[in-house]
Design goal:
The complex is a heterodimer. By secondary structure, chain A is mainly α. Chain A folds into two domains: 5-110 and 140-421 and 535-564, Sodium/glucose cotransporter, CATH 1.20.1730; 424-523, no CATH class. In chain A, 75% of the residues lie in helices and 0% in strands. Chain A is built from 24 helices and no strands. Chain A has helices spanning 5-8, 14-35, 41-46, 53-64, 67-80, 86-89, 93-109, 115-123, 125-158, 162-210, 213-223, 237-240, 245-267, 269-276, 281-312, 319-325, 339-347, 352-388, 394-419, 425-449, 455-477, 485-510, 529-532, 547-564. Chain B has a domain at 32-79. The longest helix of chain B has 22 residues, at 20-41. Chain B has helices spanning 4-8, 20-41, 45-50, 56-77, 86-91. Chain B is an all-alpha fold. In chain B, helix 2 packs antiparallel against helix 4 (56-77). Chain B is elongated and about 45 Å long. Classes of the chains: A mainly alpha, B mainly alpha. At the A-B interface, helix 2, helix 4 and helix 10 of A face helix 2 and helix 4 of B. Chain A: Its main location: membrane. Chain A: One of its GO terms (cellular component) is plasma membrane. Chain A: Belongs to the sodium:solute symporter (SSF) (TC 2.A.21) family. Chain A: Pfam families: SSF (PF00474). Chain A: The chain crosses the membrane at residues 14-34, 54-75, 87-108, 129-154, 160-179, 191-209, 246-267, 288-308, 352-379, 400-422, 428-450, 457-476, 488-510, 543-564.
Chain lengths: 565, 100
């Protein structure tokens, strides 16, 4: 975001501030109300496993609809056009369905309280500790990045100093997560989801009106620097950077669609925790599927505004877009990251403007609160309770959880200032995912389906995988291996995945596996089918609550969308 | 369909007892009212020109009010019940607690 601050300063008036304040009042109110329900540590960390599936499903999406999603994807929309939808339809939906149908029975059925705890049961302490520590570290770094992005947007839009916005946002997130625990975070994520939609949907409509409807947009994009290619999702050569159509499709399906997205969606505790908080196996399975419906439609209110900005905002259209696409700075000084902000400035009157700002801030806070609430669960259960202070009362761990939330927030303020020294935060975040999620996914898949895999293989695979991602990162940073920004994290993720598998298999061959009775409920072939079953009576009855059928509907809709666009 | 399931045995858990749907309806409803009033009475020609003649405050405001009405209808039709113990939940009929 390099545009001069005054160009982006939004003309917010008292009404906008009032609408914004009303939203924050409700956010804190939810924290206060959720507090009344917290009587044990399970209430605090997993909402007492009592939430209905539509709540956890929307929270599932909202936790992911953070800064990266909203700002980054509208920027991609402005730059690449419709092929950006692959991040949603190929890069998220299949992995979400896989999580729901295949993996959720193990997560929910084994009654673990976190993803690292699953590692403990499957592979023992070393793997548990490695996973717990690396996850906690990653969450604090990501929370700091979210916090910094939020503060820099507030600074651009409203002119508040960065440090004031960082601390203010941190205090608000802290207030509701420390009070109400995961319930407060989840309920707020649901609220945030609706505010984000209330902000972006009108923006999309008024934008479409401005450019003359869908036909008008098609015409202007076709005549613009991107050309016709930006109007159909396949083969997406501009997005992947591959000239060859076949390679481009292959890259999207396997690179984005498999390693990166499965790694993110199926092992990231930030997401999985939302499903674990639901009230039954059936509801847990439905969580990612219900989340998939809005996820399918989010591109329309994120990418299309980006595309509209790319043709209608003076600073981004025409020669500016051409220059940016060629990798040069635009004559206007704007970047694609500003697409959404510039469009808001151009199109929205006071009133709607306040709601749009609330929506943006909501999306940043959703991301950060999700990081903090999953961090304190993992830290309290998987590090503090498991290795530091064992066997205390539940009340003690509940209190610990609240203290840890406060510490995490303070640490996140620290990492926010670290993040402020990085030029491109999107690359930084992608990089973190390649370090931590890709190897974890490899270990998980092997561990769930291969009963022979040994505890030693579990942790050595993880460590080797993460180290190889670090190595790729180091080579790319020092210029030994020339990889463009996103390319480094993609190659890193691929390397981590492959190295993890190879090391795990080799180590398994020379070490002792766990006795089979200990693996029941954790490994596919050793788990009785009944244990993986969900109930189909009472609140889980009815065809519209059948995860398999719902997943089928999502899949068909996704394919239809791919054919249309 | 009021609260017959609650009376018989005291609920063991109260988690989920406050209805987030009402909070959502409150927020979007207030936004809808403010936007509609702004759109009807306080939209200058400059504002209209910004959005190329479309009164977005009014349109979005009405949209949000419709959304609020639908949400309130949902709360009305499927009221939230305090979850009871598992055994009780099995016995209660299909009109039980909330939409999922």
């Amino acid at each position: 975001m390099t545009v001069l601050a005054q160009d982006l300063r939004l003309d917010a008036n008292a009404i906008d501030y009032l609408l914004l304040a009303f939203y924050f009042a409700l956010v804190l109110g939810i924290g206060y109300l959720a507090r009344k329900q917290v009587s044990s540590s399970l209430d605090f960390f997993l909402s007492g496993r009592s939430l209905p599936a539509w709540v956890t499903g929307l929270a599932f999406v909202a936790a992911n609809l953070g800064a990266i999603e909203v700002m980054g994807m509208s920027a991609n929309g402005a730059q690449y056009g419709l092929p950006t939808v692959h991040y949603f339809w190929i890069g998220a939906i299949p992995a979400m369905l896989f999580l729901a149908i295949v993996m959720m029975p193990f997560y929910y059925g084994s009654k673990v309280r976190s993803v690292p705890e699953f590692m403990l049961r499957r592979f023992g302490k070393p793997a548990h500790l490695v996973n717990g520590l690396s996850f906690a570290l990653a969450q604090i770094l990501i929370a700091g990045a979210n916090l910094f992005l939020l503060a820099s947007v507030v600074n651009l839009l409203l002119g508040w100093p960065i440090w004031v916005s960082i601390i203010l946002a941190a205090v608000i997130v802290l207030a509701y997560t420390a009070l109400g625990g995961l319930s407060a975070a989840i309920y707020n994520e649901v609220l945030q989801f609706f505010v984000i939609v209330a902000a972006l949907l009108p923006l999309t409509l008024v934008g479409l009106h401005k450019v003359g409807g869908w036909e008008g947009l098609v015409e202007q994009v076709t005549n613009g620097p991107g050309g016709e290619e930006q109007l159909s999702s396949w083969p997406g050569n501009q997005l992947t950077g591959f000239g060859d159509n076949f390679l481009s499709v292959l890259g999207i399906v396997f690179g984005l669609g498999f390693v990166l997205s499965f790694g993110y969606w199926t092992t990231n505790f930030v997401e999985v925790q939302r499903a674990m908080a639901s009230k039954s196996m059936s509801a847990a399975q439905r969580t990612p599927i219900i989340g998939a419906f809005p996820k399918m439609l989010v591109p329309f209110i994120v990418i299309i505004p980006g595309m509209i900005a790319g043709v209608s905002v003076t600073e981004l259209a025409g020669e500016n877009k051409a220059a940016l696409m060629a990798g040069d700075p635009a004559p206007s000084g704007a970047t694609f990251n500003d697409a959404l902000l510039l469009l808001m400035r151009d199109l929205l009157p006071n009133g709607m403007l306040g709601i749009a700002i609330a929506g943006l801030l909501a999306s940043f806070m959703a991301g950060m609160a999700a990081n903090i609430s999953s961090f304190n669960t993992v830290f309290t259960y998987d590090i503090w309770q498991a290795y530091v202070k064992k066997g205390r009362s539940d009340e003690y761990y509940l209190r610990t959880g609240r203290v840890v939330t406060a510490c995490a927030t303070i640490l996140a303020i620290g990492t926010a200032f670290i993040a402020s020294t990085y030029a491109n935060l999107m690359d930084y975040l992608q990089q973190l995912f390649s370090f931590f999620n890709a190897p974890l996914f490899a270990t998980f898949i092997l561990g769930m389906f291969w009963k022979r895999m040994t505890p030693t293989a579990g942790w050595t695979g993880l460590v080797a995988g993460t180290l190889s991602a670090f190595a790729v990162f180091g080579l790319a940073e020092t210029g030994v291996w020339d990889l463009p920004g996103q390319g480094a994290s993609f190659v890193g993720a691929g390397a981590a995945f492959v190295v993890d598998i190879v090391v795990s298999v080799v180590v398994t061959m020379v070490t002792q596996p766990k006795p089979e009775p200990q693996l029941v409920g954790l490994v596919y072939s050793l788990t009785p089918k009944e244990q993986l079953k969900r109930s189909t009576v009472g609140e889980d009855a009815g065809w519209y609550r059948n995860p398999g059928l719902l997943a089928g509907i999502v899949l068909v809709l996704t394919i239809v969308l791919n054919i249309i666009f | 369909m009021s609260d017959e399931t609650v009376g018989s045995e005291t609920p063991k858990r109260t988690a989920g007892a406050f209805d987030v749907r009402l909070v959502i309806a409150l927020l979007i409803g207030v936004y809808g009212i403010v936007l509609t009033v702004l759109g009807l009475g306080f939209t200058s020609d400059a504002d209209l020109a910004k959005a190329d003649g479309l009164n977005i405050n009014l349109v979005a405001g009405i949209g949000m009010l419709v959304f609020t009405a639908l949400f309130l209808l949902w709360v009305k039709l499927r009221p939230l019940r305090v979850p009871v113990t598992d055994e009780d939940a099995e016995e209660s009929d299909s009109a039980s607690s909330q939409q999922s």
